[in-house]
Design brief:
binds magnesium ion, globular, six-stranded parallel sheet, about 260 residues, binds adenosine-5'-diphosphate
């Protein structure tokens, strides 16, 4: 790794990725942030590349970042907000396409300086990727390059249903290929549906073949607008066991509400 890429202490953050878009990365990032803060750690959220922004110019709002800030009851002044979401684009499409349409190149140096500035004021970062590990960011690079630059332990959010074995194992393989530490897998049911024999076996199989701990299994729940991290049980931080993985693959303490 070249000199300018180094510089992050792996203990000072976590990177939340997923097997796809819409799998629950933001929900998990927000929950992780809330748990760290509830444990007294001054953690801050970061979304290096945010798609689907609303508003205009420097007032462009980053929806995933705002879920994290709101969940943790945090406010960010404009300068800090810009560091937390350095690349904000309106269209909800792949980062490489957004950057091209905006006529700019996503710079790892810029993301790195924003993160280092945040780490001067906060103890840890919860960084959420865009899409999955191979989502292109332009210039032949992918999200993996951003993740490698951080070097933080990676949490992989995955679906419980059919297809998840291939997607999750490929994701883990790509992370290991870059020498990235894997914190574990969170299986999240972002869509309604029952946990049938396939889903239950997928969890067991990922536990066996993934060579990473299953940190949590989150059932479908929440409000009509989605799952609010506020429903997550307080107290058990990610450093202990986050949610107990029950045989029926439910999170302890978080009923549907
Ligand atoms: N376990 C869940 N139960 C109910 N809704 C969920 C759950 N997980 C995620 N969602 C909802 O699904 C949508 C996609 O989740 P999100 O965290 O934004 O995914 P990603 O960040 O991977 O794109 C959001 O509306 C979110 O609130
Ligand atoms: Mg998201």
């Amino acid at each position: 790794m070249s000199g300018w890429q180094a510089g992050f202490d792996p203990e000072r953050g976590v990177f939340v990725t997923g097997t796809d878009t819409g799998v629950g990365k933001t929900v998990v990032a927000a929950a992780w942030l809330c748990q760290w803060r509830a444990a007294g750690v001054d953690a801050a959220p970061m979304k290096p590349v945010q798609t689907g922004c609303v508003g205009r110019g420097s007032a462009l709002r980053a929806p995933d970042l705002e879920v994290c800030l709101d969940s943790a009851g945090m406010k960010a002044a404009p300068a800090e907000y810009a560091r937390m979401a350095p690349y904000r684009y309106r269209p909800a499409c792949s980062p490489h396409l957004e950057a091209r349409m905006a006529g700019e190149t996503i710079s790892l140096r810029r993301i790195r300086s924003a993160a280092l500035a945040l780490l001067r004021n906060h103890e840890r970062l919860v960084v959420e990727g865009a899409g999955g590990v191979m989502a292109p960011i332009g210039g032949g690079r992918t999200m993996l390059d951003i993740m490698t630059m951080f070097g933080f332990p990676v949490v992989v959010v995955a679906r419980p249903g059919l297809g998840t074995l291939n997607h999750t194992l490929l994701t883990l393989d790509a992370l290991r290929g870059r020498g990235l530490p894997v914190a574990g897998i969170v299986i999240n049911q972002a869509q309604p549906g029952k946990m049938g024999f396939i889903e239950k076996d997928n969890i067991r199989t990922l536990g066996r073949l993934g060579r990473s701990p299953i940190l949590a299994c989150i059932p479908f729940g929440g409000t009509r607008k989605g799952l609010s991290p506020r429903v997550f049980p307080a107290g058990a931080g990610p450093e202990r066991r986050w949610w107990r993985v029950g045989r029926a693959a439910r999170i302890e303490g978080a009923g549907a509400q």
